[in-house]
């Protein structure tokens, strides 16, 4: 750290010569990743048009694939070239979007629909009469291939970050001490995050050489907002994240952006809005100011109707298709242990209303009466929930059911009864709700779910604080798309057995 601070002292106020000689700070992994995506896109596009030509005409050669005087090999080449050009001009491989978030996929989809929309319009205007079957195969195949290949590439980047610490963007955080702590903890919470905080510029008088971040460690500090350029060079940062600061106003941020532009360093501005998803944020330029408008959470109207329709359709399908499994589990429970087949527990639902939740029984009879004897061995971080990794009350059949979450299948009956939803916050016990503060009580604004962000993010391994944070994020930002994504991710969580006990 001494060497870093010495380097900072030498470069705290870099002159024009130093700034001009600084090489491009765009992370090498981003440049390499963007280059590899070109190959990924070429393969995906060629596979799509080749598959369409093969399935529609039975071959790839000119003689076989000539239909109604149209040479489809030439059409395929033209569509592939236009497709790749559209992906390029839509900046689908921009370092600003690749590797995380949905914007990358949105731009791929937009480029694809633009090309095929143009082909359809051109075919109609010039009476080309391009075979509809060919286009109906190429379009969905292309979308599937491009998104699948990019997802695989993104997974490879995620593994490199989590296991080897590669594909990381070094970031310098600027702001007051509290804001720097919060932002650093948020970025460090996700092991697959792109950003690694390597230094900070703290508002106020200089004096500290580092700042301790709980769960992360010590982060070196480099003066205040006026020392950003020198700190960037000292830490070899590729981005600067500005969060809440008393001394850096709008003009200061503009001047900082110009200074960082000379260093080829990205400027990120964290508005301090916590746990609000992108669809609720809208940038609105007013009087030359970029104002961020935060939409209110929507719990009523069409969105609630869509959610209820999804709940009914999904639950009915699961119960009908899973009927043989339900019968087999009921027989296994009845033959291997004393007690009822189902476990019924009072839970607190929407707006604090109590309901009876149904699950397959996985513990010995009267297991609830043994909680007081085992409370000292609670493995849950936070003390509100009661969880044990090796609970002596769980039966052999129950352990298997819990491992694959089969014990939760009867909860789909609760969904049909309108007590629960397929996706939502974890259904709490009455004694848990009594300990809720005003912050945690917001979980009760929507119906509890069979699965949710808590299920796909660690299940019982989550601390109480993380469980509340994920539930409230869902409450604030729920949508049909997020419900579908969580339902798909639940399958992965179930088969990986992560946090299941």
Global morphology: globular
Radius of gyration, in Å, reads 28 Å
The number of helical runs is: 18
Tell me the strand order in the biggest sheet.
4-3-7-8
Could you estimate the helical fraction of the residues in percent? Answer: 40-55%
Strand-residue fraction? 5-15%
Mean pLDDT: 80
Number of domains: 3
Class derived from helix and strand content: alpha/beta
Please report the total strand number as a whole number.
14
As residue ranges, the low-confidence spans are 13-23
State the distance separating the first and last CA atoms.
43 Å
| Largest β-sheet summary | 4 strands, parallel
Topology:
Elements: H1 2-11, H2 16-21, H3 28-57, E1 66-67, E2 70-71, H4 72-89, H5 103-125, H6 132-164, E3 169-175, H7 177-189, E4 195-202, E5 210-213, E6 217-220, H8 228-235, E7 239-242, H9 250-262, E8 266-269, E9 281-286, E10 289-294, H10 302-321, H11 323-336, E11 342-348, E12 354-360, H12 371-374, H13 396-403, H14 411-416, E13 421-423, H15 430-434, E14 449-451, H16 453-456, H17 464-477, H18 480-496
Parallel strand pairs: 3-4, 3-7, 7-8, 13-14
Antiparallel strand pairs: 1-2, 5-6, 9-10, 11-12
Helix pairs in contact: 1-8, 3-4, 3-6, 4-5, 5-6, 11-13
């Amino acid at each position: 750290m001494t060497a870093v601070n010495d380097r900072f002292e030498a470069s705290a106020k870099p002159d024009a010569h130093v700034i001009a000689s600084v090489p491009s700070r765009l992370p090498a992994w981003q440049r390499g990743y963007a280059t590899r995506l070109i190959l990924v896109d070429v393969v995906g596009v060629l596979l799509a048009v080749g598959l369409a030509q093969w399935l529609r005409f039975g071959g790839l050669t000119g003689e076989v694939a000539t239909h109604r005087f149209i040479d489809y090999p030439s059409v395929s080449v033209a569509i592939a070239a236009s497709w790749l050009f559209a992906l390029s001009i839509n900046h689908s491989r921009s370092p600003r979007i690749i590797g995380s978030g949905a914007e990358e996929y949105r731009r791929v989809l937009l480029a694809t629909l633009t090309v095929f929309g143009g082909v359809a319009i051109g075919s109609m205007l010039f009476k080309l009469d391009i075979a509809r079957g060919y286009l109906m195969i190429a379009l969905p195949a292309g979308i599937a291939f491009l998104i699948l290949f990019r997802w695989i590439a993104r997974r490879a980047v995620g593994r490199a970050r989590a296991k080897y610490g590669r594909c990381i963007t070094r970031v310098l955080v600027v702001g007051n001490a509290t804001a720097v702590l919060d932002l650093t903890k948020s970025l460090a919470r996700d092991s697959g995050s792109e950003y690694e905080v390597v230094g900070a510029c703290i508002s106020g008088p200089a004096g500290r050489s580092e700042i301790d971040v709980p769960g992360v460690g010590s982060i070196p500090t480099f003066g205040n907002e006026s020392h950003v350029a020198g700190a960037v060079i000292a830490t070899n940062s590729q981005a600067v994240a500005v969060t809440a600061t008393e001394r850096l106003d709008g003009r200061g941020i503009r001047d900082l952006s110009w200074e960082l532009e000379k260093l080829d360093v990205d400027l990120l501005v964290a508005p301090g809005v916590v746990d609000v998803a992108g669809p609720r944020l809208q940038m609105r330029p007013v009087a030359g100011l970029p104002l961020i408008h935060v939409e209110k959470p929507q719990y009523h109207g069409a969105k609630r109707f869509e959610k209820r329709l999804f709940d009914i359709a999904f639950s009915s399908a699961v119960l009908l298709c899973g009927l043989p499994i339900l019968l087999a589990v009921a027989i296994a429970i009845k033959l291997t242990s004393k007690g009822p087949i189902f476990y019924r527990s009072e839970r607190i639902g929407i707006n604090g209303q109590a309901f009876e939740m149904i699950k397959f029984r996985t513990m010995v009879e009267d297991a609830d009466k043994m909680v007081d004897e085992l409370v000292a061995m609670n493995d849950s971080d936070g003390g509100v929930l009661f969880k044990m990794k090796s609970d002596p009350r769980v039966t052999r059949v129950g352990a298997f059911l819990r491992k694959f979450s089969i014990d939760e299948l009867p909860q789909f009956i609760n969904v049909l009864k309108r007590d629960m939803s397929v996706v939502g916050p974890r259904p709490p016990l009455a004694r848990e709700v009594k300990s809720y503060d005003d912050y945690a009580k917001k979980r009760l604004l929507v119906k509890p779910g069979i699965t949710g962000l808590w299920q796909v993010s660690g299940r019982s391994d989550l601390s109480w604080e993380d469980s509340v944070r994920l539930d409230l994020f869902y409450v604030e930002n729920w949508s049909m798309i997020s419900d579908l994504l969580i339902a798909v991710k639940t399958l992965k969580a179930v088969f990986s057995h992560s946090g299941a006990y």
